[in-house]
UniProtKB/TrEMBL annotation:
This is Rhomboid family intramembrane serine protease. One of its GO terms (molecular function) is serine-type endopeptidase activity. The chain crosses the membrane at residues 62-91, 103-121, 127-147, 154-175, 195-215. It comes from the Bacteria. GO terms for cellular component: membrane. InterPro entries: Peptidase_S54_rhomboid_dom, Rhomboid-like_sf, Rhomboid_protease_S54.
Amino acid sequence: MTIALIVLNVLLFGWQSLNPEFTLGWSVIPKEIVTGQDLVEPQIVQGPQGAIEVPQAPGPALIYFTIFSAMFMHGGLGHIGGNMLYLWIFGDNVEHRFGPMKFLLFYLFSGIAATVAQVALGPDSVIPNLGASGAISGVMGAYLVLFPKNRVNSIFLFHMVSVPAVVVLGMWIAMQLFSGWGTVGQNSQTGGVAYAAHIGGFVAGVVAGLGARLMMKKEPENRSYEFYTIKG
């Protein structure tokens, strides 16, 4: 299922590159989710440099479907590349523990939780939101609970170090919380990184991971996987 999700993300990214209006229309727009109405005309918002026109495009007949479509869409090669790398690294272990179909449902659940968190932060925002990072954050949250002692190889100050997953993922969520707090109220109308979605998805993953762990008698296996990050 992890491979299937990666393939689906890549295929949809290819479709986006050929259809720019599809990206606008099928992304999550918080105001559309709150009102249930599809915005098709450009919207004017106030940014740091003054008024900004935000283009819009027709979306699906049932506008709430964008909650699902947006979690398979991306804004660029770097965006999809980073997300798919994280999904590849952490997804297979969590999928093995949940099983393919339960993993798919969990992935979608995490994506929904991420969207709810982002919409709650800026319900009047007309900025398109897209990306798999919310759902993948859920996968990372579950990984933290299920495989906390797994060794993860990271590049730190140009040296390879092997650290427990709990340290790597703990640092990651700490950075999301710190960065998210610093941007509260700044990007709901002007765009930026959706830290609230990352945090919401991660929390959903932790909850699901705890639930799965309670139902399991066997302790998670300790397996090592390579994960490369560059710090400093």
